Amino acid sequence: MPITPIDDQRVARLSDAAQGRERLRANDNLHPELADPVQRMLNAFEPGTYVRPHRHGDPPKWELFLALSGAAACLTFDEAGTVTERCEIRAGGPLYGVEIPAGAWHSVAALEPGTVLFEIKPGPYAPLTDKDFAAWAPAEGEAGAVAMERWLRSAPVGAAAGCRSGT
């Protein structure tokens, strides 16, 4: 099996793909199968794409994000939707990445155009049970999702999510 390069061209192609999509995101799986025990992927996303707060709880899984280009806010929440931790990761540092604890409510928000993250988490990927979405956060496309995405970009520790699902 050949080496899989993660280079400027691959990152730029993925970023261009994200910019051209309605959801403003694109991913590139590096693992060969969804059943792979280690999921490895590049995720490109632009400011304006909404990653609904969620956790990986069945079974609990950690997640690691490293910034390859751009910058992203990485947030964790308590059960009620209050921000418990917030980190901004950037390709140029000083903070390049974070590991989200297993089972933690979390989200990421692109802070700059051209943001691409390298993500690693335990597999296998089971589409029906991979994510448990937070009831206190609107679903993608629901009223309040746009406001929630903007809030995620700047929400400080201690702030409570002001958007509720279905409102």
UniProtKB/TrEMBL annotation:
| Superkingdom of origin organism | Bacteria
Q: Where is the Cupin fold metalloprotein WbuC cupin domain?
A: 6-88
Please give the Pfam families that the UniProt record associates with this protein. DUF6016
The entry's protein name is Cupin fold metalloprotein, WbuC family
